[in-house]
Backbone:
């Protein structure tokens, strides 16, 4: 019984000695060479001259701020009290370790956890990554620059789970003492690893945004390709609600809209013509692309200027850890990219290029068959991007895209007429291309307020040149030379500045607002004629200047645990030749959770488009002209309403069904017989404004992760147009009105070295106009046409296949890619050709250009 108080006395004695020793230890004096050292210098001096060491989060301590000392020689205890008072810190001592933390202003308050979500191998920002707090069932998404913000309860231990599709999830636990900057790096997931499904935040049924599809770039790169060229736009054509137009082309017709009604953004800069090779390939080189997102409806207020869709394409930022690169050699082109750090961990660059070489390879054969005549075509792309961290709160980006297509033909001939020799040369060619550039600054005003400021430039130009030269020599030695030059040019050039803000006052409330202004320079088409016969004339349109300004605000919030909404207003203004067009465009989208796996969604959006595209029918020649709204041609307007449901099936599959209805007013069309090269008329006299509508239902089942991934989609859709002077003023089907559209995309990773993929598409034929009778007037045969687009081309279907063999090498990795387009050789129609003979009368023949088409490419990375 007496041993207990003796033991207690001994323990108290030992504790007192420890405390006394600790107090004596903190009573040691530290001498400094200056009275204004930085906090980091103070902590380093204490660690160097005592047995103490410090534990703290460097992101929340002002290490570079100066400490004002009262004397050059102070006790450790005095220094600790000084820095805790000056910098609002608290400290505790356990043994020889001093723990420094930010002092709470009030217990039980809220603090911000924020930072950037990055790829651990390259340092690239991860867009749309998730941060989830299981204890509070709250979370956040990383934005287009990888930044996230999350509020948690102060004073508690917080457990956060970070995840991204295709990456290993990471769990972090710490005490939420104060606002904390926490940058997290995730690493790509190995084939046999299991994803932490509990970390998935805002699955399809939880997102308020509808009609949006995010396609992983890895899936796009593994899909079957045409002629060995991975194409982002062709992959998107396999999604519900997106039509492909003519076979093999990369144009997009979204929910009954035209190609000009798609807002295509490359790093936030509009791209006005996204096609190469007469429309068969897009301008997006997959080696340079990091993220792709398509919005078909329910547009947030931050987007404006188009009626049908928004396509966001973000370029890679480059590896800020090490130098690496790669490329591919295909049947029609080759490409190469390199990336690396500017300063390790602080900045990086990426450069990528692609060029066709068909013109170079075929030149010897052409010379053999054509002699001195020349015929050729090529296209190229160049992408470059760099970024640098100026500080933890500031980052700058610069990115550039250059692309061009050129077709050229040169013919030489020599003839003798009446003892005179004529040496003739004819040069014909056309080219088109895009240029974009952006300078961007990200700034973090506070953990809850993020800003992005951009200055952008965009240019699209098209030119057609026809040169002729004739040298005449008579038998008596006299010579005379004639030459002529016909040139047609058109284009659009933009200079713009914008600023966007993201404010997150809480986990259930997010506000985005911003403004931008753009100066458009339109060149709708000018034809110049020159010769040495004193002819120098220009017809057509001169450059037209226009100003477009936009201002928006959108508020996303939760009402209870089931209802979440996004309400916004987009205001725009267009000034051209003294005519003003102001507009207010309300936007709304909402979702209601029936349970944790099922939700109902609805959206409504009005849109205004101030620019128009004059489109010639054909196979995709770049003769389309961008023109502004004028006093006579008003802006295009639309409204779209959608309703649907979203499900999550077994945590791996996402399923959605959406119905929509859209009306469009002010859409324009060439009048019957109008010619874009006609120099004697203003373009406004060649077109007519009309009305259109579209409606349908879309089904979409998608699996993004695992050995097997891909999607299955089905669309039932209707699209119509109506113009006063076309089809007798009656509504008629839009050319790309496709009633039924089924698509399947599947990718299976057999192991880390081998994977296969397949794509299948079936759709009913597009609408065409065909003559139904033929008669003669004054000896001239004339076709009589029925209703506009009253007939259908045959149904279209094909299956494609792709296989990839990878192998690790000492220098990196190589891969062979074998693709087959239209594997069962279905003769799908490219267009319908009219034939007529006296014996058989009128007949039609379908013309096919893409049958069974295998291709192979060699890819490498180092």
Residues:
């Amino acid at each position: 019984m007496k041993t207990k108080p003796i033991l207690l006395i001994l323990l108290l004695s030992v504790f007192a000695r420890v405390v006394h020793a600790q107090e004596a230890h903190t009573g040691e004096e530290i001498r400094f060479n200056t009275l204004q050292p930085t906090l980091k210098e103070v902590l380093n001096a204490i660690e160097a001259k005592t047995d103490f060491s410090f534990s703290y989060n460097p992101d929340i301590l002002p290490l570079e701020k100066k400490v004002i000392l009262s004397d050059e020689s102070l006790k450790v205890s005095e220094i600790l009290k000084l820095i805790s008072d000056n910098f609002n810190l608290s400290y505790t001592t356990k043994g020889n370790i001093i723990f420094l933390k930010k002092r709470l202003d009030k217990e039980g308050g809220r603090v911000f956890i924020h930072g950037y979500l990055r790829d651990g191998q390259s340092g690239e920002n991860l867009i749309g990554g998730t941060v989830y707090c299981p204890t509070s069932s709250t979370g956040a998404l990383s934005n287009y620059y990888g930044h996230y913000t999350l509020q948690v309860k102060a004073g508690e231990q917080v457990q956060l789970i970070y995840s991204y599709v295709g990456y290993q999830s990471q769990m972090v636990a710490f005490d939420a003492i104060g606002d904390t900057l926490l940058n997290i790096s995730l690493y790509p997931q190995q084939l046999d690893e299991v994803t932490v499904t509990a970390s998935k935040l805002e699955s399809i049924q939880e997102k308020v945004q509808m009609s949006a599809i995010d396609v992983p770039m890895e899936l796009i790169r593994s899909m079957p390709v045409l002629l060995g060229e991975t194409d982002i736009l062709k992959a998107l054509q396999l999604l519900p609600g997106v039509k492909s137009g003519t076979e093999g082309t990369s144009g997009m017709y979204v929910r009954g809209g035209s190609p000009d009604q798609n807002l295509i953004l490359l790093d936030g800069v509009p791209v006005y013509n996204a096609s190469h090779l007469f429309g068969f390939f897009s301008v997006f080189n997959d080696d340079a692309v990091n993220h792709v997102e398509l919005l078909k409806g329910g547009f947030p207020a931050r987007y404006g200027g188009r009626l049908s869709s928004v396509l966001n394409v973000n370029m890679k930022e480059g590896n800020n850890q090490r130098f690496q690169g790669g490329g591919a050699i295909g049947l029609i082109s080759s490409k190469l990219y390199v990336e690396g750090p500017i300063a390790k961990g602080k900045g990086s660059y990426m450069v990528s290029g692609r060029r066709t070489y068909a013109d170079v390879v075929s030149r010897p054969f052409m010379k053999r068959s054509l002699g001195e005549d020349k015929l050729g075509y090529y296209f190229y792309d160049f992408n470059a991007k760099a970024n640098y961290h100026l500080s933890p709160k500031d980052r700058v980006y610069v990115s550039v895209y250059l692309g061009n297509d050129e077709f050229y033909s040169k013919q030489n001939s020599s003839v003798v007429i009446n003892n005179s020799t004529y040496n003739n040369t004819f040069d014909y060619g056309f080219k088109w291309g895009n240029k974009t550039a952006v300078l961007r600054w990200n700034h973090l005003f506070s953990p809850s307020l993020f800003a992005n400021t951009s200055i952008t430039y965009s240019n699209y130009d098209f030119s057609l040149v026809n040169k002729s030269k004739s040298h005449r020599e008579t038998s008596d030695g006299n010579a005379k030379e004639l030459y002529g030059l016909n040139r047609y040019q058109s284009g659009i050039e933009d200079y713009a500045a914008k600023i966007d803000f993201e404010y997150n006052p809480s986990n259930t409330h997010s506000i985005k607002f911003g403004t931008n202004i753009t100066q458009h320079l339109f060149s709708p088409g000018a034809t110049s004629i020159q010769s040495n016969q004193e002819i120098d004339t220009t017809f057509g349109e001169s450059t037209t200047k226009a100003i477009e300004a936009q201002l928006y605000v959108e508020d996303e919030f939760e009402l209870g645990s089931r209802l979440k909404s996004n309400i916004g207003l987009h205001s725009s203004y267009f000034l051209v030749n003294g005519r003003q067009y102001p507009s207010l465009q309300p936007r709304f989208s909402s979702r209601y959770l029936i349970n944790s796996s099922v939700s109902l969604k609805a959206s409504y959006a009005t849109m205004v488009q101030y620019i128009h595209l004059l489109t010639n029918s054909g196979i995709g020649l770049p003769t389309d002209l961008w023109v502004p709204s004028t006093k006579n041609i008003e802006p295009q307007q639309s409204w779209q309403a959608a309703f649907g449901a979203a499900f999550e099936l077994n945590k791996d599959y996402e399923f959605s069904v959406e119905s929509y209805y859209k009306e469009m007013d002010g859409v324009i069309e060439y009048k019957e017989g109008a010619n874009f090269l006609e120099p004697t008329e203003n373009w406004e006299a060649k077109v007519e404004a009309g009305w259109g509508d579209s409606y349908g239902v879309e089904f979409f089942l998608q699996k993004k992760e695992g050995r097997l991934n891909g999607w299955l989609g089905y669309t039932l859709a209707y699209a119509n147009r109506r113009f006063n002077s076309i089809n007798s003023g009656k509504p008629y089907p839009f050319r790309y009105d496709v009633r039924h559209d089924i698509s399947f995309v599947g990718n299976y990773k057999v192991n880390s070295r081998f994977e296969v993929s397949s794509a299948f598409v079936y759709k009913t034929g597009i609408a065409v106009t065909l003559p139904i009778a033929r008669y003669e007037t004054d000896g001239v045969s004339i076709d009589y046409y029925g209703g506009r687009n009253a007939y259908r081309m045959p149904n279209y279907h094909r299956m494609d296949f792709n296989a990839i063999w990878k192998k690790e090498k000492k220098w990196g990795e190589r891969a062979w890619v074998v693709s087959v387009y239209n594997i069962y050789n279905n003769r799908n129609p490219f267009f319908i050709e009219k034939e007529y003979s006296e014996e058989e009368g009128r007949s039609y023949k379908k013309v096919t250009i893409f049958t069974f088409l295998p291709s192979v490419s060699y890819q490498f990375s180092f």
Residues 516 and 534 are 47 Å apart (CA to CA). The first helix runs from residue 3 to 26. The chain has three domains: 13-102, 110-199, 212-861. The helical segments are 3-26, 39-49, 76-86, 217-222, 232-236, 358-370.
